[in-house]
Design goal:
Blueprint: E1 3-8, H1 18-32, E2 40-44, E3 59-65, H2 71-89, E4 96-102, H3 111-114
Parallel strand pairs: 1-2, 3-4
Antiparallel strand pairs: 1-3
Helix pairs in contact: 1-2
């Protein structure tokens, strides 16, 4: 189940976040290749964030998935999610950072075969 956790310094109090949830869910599902029913999105706003030495609109996100992560998938996620946040929250794509984690990737690739 992919889980996308987005943290931003943008105040979400008066913003309709439904489009963010639906667009990010569709994007993650499509790019990673997992059904929408397994995609979780968490969105947290008004978190103090300093990026490039200032507190202008920015976002940090983490995505965890069991498989489906390649270099091209990472590139597509960064571009697509950055675009969604820019469109919905006016966060410049240059002020968006995404950490990607594949739970099936072993830090010791040969360890499993030796067990």
């Amino acid at each position: 189940m992919p889980c996308l956790y987005i943290t931003t310094n943008v105040n979400l109090h008066e913003i309709d976040t439904d489009p963010i949830f639906s667009e990010t869910t569709s994007a993650v599902s499509s790019i990673i290749g997992k059904p929408k029913k397994f995609v979780m999105v968490v969105l947290k706003g008004s978190v103090p964030i300093s990026f490039e030495g200032n507190k202008e609109a920015a976002a940090y996100a983490e995505i965890v998935s069991m498989g489906g992560i390649t270099k091209q998938v990472k590139r597509n996620l960064i571009a697509t999610l950055g675009s969604i946040l820019h469109h919905n929250l006016s966060i410049p794509t240059s002020r968006f950072f995404l950490k990607v984690f594949d739970t099936t990737a072993s830090p010791f690739p040969n360890a499993i075969s030796k067990l």
